[in-house]
């Protein structure tokens, strides 16, 4: 007889396939520990520009006053600080370039042979061209700013999705072992259930999940009622304790009286037994002596009783 297939097997196989596909993708894309940085993203551009250069001698590495250590381990704060610094440097560089080019053109116009003479019409045409170029440059700057904002938004979204994917990947890697453990636990519980049914244990141990939950809820309600009754009875404990102490005092007094009565009864019984045996009781003898003395005194004194 073939063993029935677990309903979780397809999910486990699908999870294993997805995990294998992700691992293959990481293997094909390189070391999984590598992370993208600005320097690494710029390597293809710098390599292509170096290959197009006719001079095979590599250019010496240039360093600025900004440390490149932050690019090795980038963080959002360090990247924003570096970008702000580079914007400031490029603004200064642009100003220096415009100033240098203007000086060079002015000097060439003065010392040239023959000197360059610019008319008002040419200045007007240049101003119109500059205005058109500035307008086009402004539009391009606006487009670039919008593109940068969109790239930043998309980058932040990709970072968030990447973090979610990493967390889900960790869960996915741990999922097969958890599924195996749960299936083993289910098999153990089924074996225990079969043993309990074979041993003739009560029907409560073999009920389905719905009835078991209903039974548990009923028992919890009963337990809640008992706890409320215990609270009510607990409030009556001090008064009952005082009553018990009072009754104990009364019982102690009654016990003392009973002990005294028992002692007197035993003494009376002993006296009766002694009297029946022929031995005169001392009190009875003394009483008879008192009566005889009284009779004699009455006769002597001639008193009538």
From TrEMBL:
Residues 46-64 have a biased composition (Low complexity). One of its GO terms (cellular component) is kinetochore. The keyword 4Fe-4S does not apply. The keyword Phosphoprotein does not apply. GO terms for biological process: attachment of mitotic spindle microtubules to kinetochore; protein localization to kinetochore. Transmembrane segments: none annotated. This is Kinetochore protein Sos7 coiled-coil domain-containing protein. Keywords: Coiled coil. Residues 88-162 form the Kinetochore protein Sos7 coiled-coil domain. It comes from the Eukaryota. Residues 38-75, 257-282 are annotated as: Disordered. Pfam families: Sos7 (PF20882). Residues 257-267 have a biased composition (Basic and acidic residues). InterPro entries: Sos7 (IPR037475), Sos7_CC (IPR048781). Residues 123-199 form a coiled coil. Residues 65-75 have a biased composition (Polar residues). It comes from Chaetomium fimeti. Gene3D superfamilies: 1.10.287.1490.
């Amino acid at each position: 007889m073939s063993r029935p297939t677990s309903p979780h097997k397809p999910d486990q196989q699908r999870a294993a396939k997805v995990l294998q596909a992700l691992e293959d993708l990481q293997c094909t894309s390189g070391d999984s520990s590598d992370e993208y940085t600005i320097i690494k993203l710029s390597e293809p551009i710098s390599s292509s520009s170096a290959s197009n250069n006719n001079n095979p001698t590599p250019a010496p590495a240039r360093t600025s006053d900004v440390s490149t250590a932050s690019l090795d381990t980038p963080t959002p704060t360090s990247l924003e600080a570096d970008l702000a610094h580079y914007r400031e440097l490029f603004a200064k560089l642009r100003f220096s370039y415009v100033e240098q080019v203007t000086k060079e053109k002015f000097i060439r116009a003065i010392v040239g042979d023959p000197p360059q003479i610019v008319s008002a019409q040419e200045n007007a045409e240049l101003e119109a061209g500059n205005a058109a170029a500035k307008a086009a440059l402004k539009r391009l700057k606006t487009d670039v700013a919008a593109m940068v904002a969109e790239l930043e938004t998309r980058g932040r979204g990709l970072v968030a999705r990447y973090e979610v994917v990493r967390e889900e990947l960790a869960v996915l890697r741990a999922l097969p072992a958890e599924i195996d453990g749960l299936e083993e636990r289910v098999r153990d519980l089924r074996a225990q259930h079969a043993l309990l049914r074979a041993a003739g244990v009560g029907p409560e141990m073999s009920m389905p999940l719905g009835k078991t939950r209903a039974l548990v809820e009923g028992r919890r309600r009963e337990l809640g009622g008992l706890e409320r009754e215990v609270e009510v009875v607990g409030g009556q404990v001090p008064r009952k304790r005082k009553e018990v102490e009072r009754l104990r005092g009364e019982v102690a007094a009654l016990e003392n009286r009973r002990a005294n009565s028992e002692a007197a009864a035993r003494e009376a019984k002993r006296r009766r037994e002694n009297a029946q045996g022929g031995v005169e009781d001392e009190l009875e003898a003394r009483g008879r002596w008192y009566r005889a003395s009284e009779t004699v005194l009455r006769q002597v004194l001639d008193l009538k009783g």
